[in-house]
Amino acid sequence: MSAYGHELEREYSAQSSIPSRGGSEIGSQYSTEAGIYMSSFAATVFISGLVTFGVSLLSLLVALTVMLRTCESRNSGVVEMYRYTKSYDYCKNFALHAELNNLCVDSFPAICKDVNQIYIKEGQYKRDLNTTISIVEDFFGGIRPKNDGRDIVLMDADDFLASEPSSSNHLMHRIEEDGLQDSSVDAEYLKHIFVMKLYLKLQSEGWPLILLSRKPEKLRNATVNYLVSVGCYGWSSLIMRRDNEMQMHFEEFLSRQRTTLQRNGFRIMAVISSQMDALKGPCLGKRVFKLPNRIFRYGCQDDDENQLQKS
Which CATH number applies to 101-310? Predict the structure, then answer.
């Protein structure tokens, strides 16, 4: 073979070896990329991530379940509240007109009896009393009585006498210590406590207080003893009806009493009562404050007359 032939053979051999090495490298590279290598640490992290994701997903499902049940409960409560609110609004307005027209209990719709129980037991009556007393206190917080003793406040004594507690010590304990937290007490007793609280507040600020009662004069001693026993003392006067005034409607009786007081030089700063008959007529002074009553039961004139005759 010539020298030229040997040189061609060497070049051919060299070129033939290049693809072989290239193929080997490509195959090696392919083998490395096709496999997945994972260390034990990476595997631990991966598994922990899966567990965490599963726990989070489970927590989310539990939360959604609780939310759905809560929504169902709220929807049920909203429906029930709507039914109560509709009856409450009706009975509340009916009660107001019953007071204005002096209607007896027989005039009330039966549904109002249930509404009245809820009104008291759920604490709304107590809140209404507290709000009204706050309004009264705000008014008197901005004024002071003159030194001549002619600025007077008229209060309905029968608001103190409406419901006699078991003992005077128990009443005063409820006023001073208990903070009026128990809304399950009798409605009239609850009103009694709030009125007593207002009385003591006005008395401590130096306001002359005149009490007016529907009860007959013959019960004065018993009435005075009871008022004193529950801490209601120090009033300027207690006005009660004489025998010839018992047949007179209390609205007319009180109108005459207020007119007489004003003619005698007294300045009526406010009249405070839970009954409409005490808040009508002339000479009502600067302010009239109506204390809330129960929804279902209001007295009427016939009932008042019968009770007085029994007394």
Answer: 3.40.50.1000
Which residues, including other chains, have CB under 8 Å from residue 152's CB and lie 6 or more apart? 207, 208, 209, 210, 236, 261, 266, 267, 268, 269
Sequence-distant (≥ 6) Cβ neighbours of residue 92 within 8 angstroms: 295
Lowest mean pLDDT among 154-168, 255-269, 280-294: 154-168
Q: Is the pTM above the cut of 0.85?
A: no
d(CA 283, CA 269): 10
Judge whether 289 and 272 are in contact, CB under 8 Å: yes
Q: How confident is the model at residue 125 (pLDDT cuts 50, 70, 90)?
A: very high
Determine the residue type at 270: A
C-alpha 117/C-alpha 107 separation (Å) is 18
- CB 282, CB 259: distance < 8 Å: yes
Evaluate whether 266 touches 235 at the Cβ level (below 8 Å): no
pLDDT over 90 (residue 235)? yes
